[in-house]
Amino acid sequence: MRDEPDNPAKPPAGERLCALADLADPGARGFRFRNERALFAGFLVRQGDSVAGYVDSCPHNGWPLAVMDDRYLTREGDRIICAAHGAMFRPADGLCVAGPCADEHLRPWPVAVVDGDVVTA
Question: Which tens digits make up the pLDDT trace of 34-92?
């Protein structure tokens, strides 16, 4: 699952994903988009009024980060965690701070909060 600009399943800019109120604080939510055989998987992470989007792919092995829907955060809600190898990432910038991909970043998925909705940017 790669985030390439020509991925036909990646939603275009301006597509509504959800209401900000539908994301727990802190919280995360995954999204999957299909276009024929192409797949785009991403997730949102909310902390306060800040929402970041990332491609759902660990830099270490390319696998999705969560094994259960929307389970991207540690119990404390302060880190994104890869369920496969325990790598931990900062929610604000996707930097891996522990695990086999230390100092690498999650690939960003540009999103914005517009009029109370989270949309692709």
Answer: 999 999 999 999 999 899 999 999 999 899 999 899 999 999 999 999 999 999 999 99
User: Which one, of 120, 84, 76, 78, lies nearest residue 101 by Cα?
Assistant: 84
Domains defined for the chain, CATH in brackets: 16-120 (2.102.10.10)
> What is the Cα–Cα distance from 40 to 38, expressed in whole angstroms?
7
Peptide bond into 91 cis (omega under 30): no
pLDDT at 6: 76
Structure tokens at 106: 């999650």
What's the Rg (C-alpha) of the chain? 13
